[in-house]
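ok so for the tutorial part 2 we go from a plain amino acid sequence to predicted structure tokens. step 1 is just haveing the sequence, like this:
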Amino acid sequence: MLNIRHIAIMFFVTISSANAVSFSGELKANKECPLYISKNTGSNPDGIKSIIGVSYKIKEANVLPATWYRVEVPNAQVNKLRWVEAVCGDVITSNPEVDQGNDEEVVTPGVSNQNACSVSGNANSYVLALSMQAGFCETSGKNKPECLNLTANSPYSKQLSLHGLWPNKNACGTNYGFCNNTQKKSSHCDYAPVALTSQTELMLKQYMASMQYGSCLERHEWYKHGTCQGRTPDDYYSLAINLTKQVNDTDVGSYIATNIGKSITAVDFNKRFDEAFGAGSSKKVQLICNRGLLTDLYIELPNLEDNNESSIKELLPLAKNAKPKTCSDTFKLSNFHN
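step 2 — the prediction. this is what the tokens look like for a chain of 338 residues:
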């Protein structure tokens, strides 16, 4: 006989997935991310996270293109169907036109994404994605040229690097990209070089190690994200560099530089960010960790197409709050180098 508690649980599961989309595939985790029973409430009673390198069978997506997947988690103690953010892994699916929500997607070369998430000029907001180069290298990119050339004295070791400036459409999230009939490529360097002035190129190399050492992240970022906004490549990257520099030039940048190789707390980081950019500003920042190391900061910004303001301090109050951090309350700043 079902008691009231069982009925309540059954009702909750039905309602929580009522608007989800059936999806067939696997997500291979490349980050440690919370696995939620409810993504809306953040319910995770056993505190489990995805395990890097493990593949999880996908049962549902929240929308298409997906920003969340509902996966089977065999080791979950309570409810083995869990929600995980799409950015937490690489998705393998039988449909090559489904954008999986990762910045380095599993794609079929030459396949163009013609859905509503590839129409330029429809952004509702932006994200400034900044990376900890050492954290990325230690967890994901040891064999990349920029990681093989990362030394202890390199400026990339002690500053936040530019990952990208992403226009986002509410219905698509970070899957909004490859606009104006841009075709996805299987490798960053398969894209044509981005036309930049020598001055912009020089500045970009100071904040993007991948460009400095020839692994072509700037090409991928332009063709995936830059094509979905109205600025020229020079103006787009000049704005991204300016925003990145603003963060590095505050006490946030100094705090990171002086704590390389050490563990810090989210509370302390948020305090520094609020002091630099205004009370409550840290709510606009998502801290991304992999294996306990800080790898990225995703800073929410308003729609920059409608706003000529370039001061982060003025932009943040206009932005929505960020998603929950994937870091634990205490995490480490990597001191990886060669």
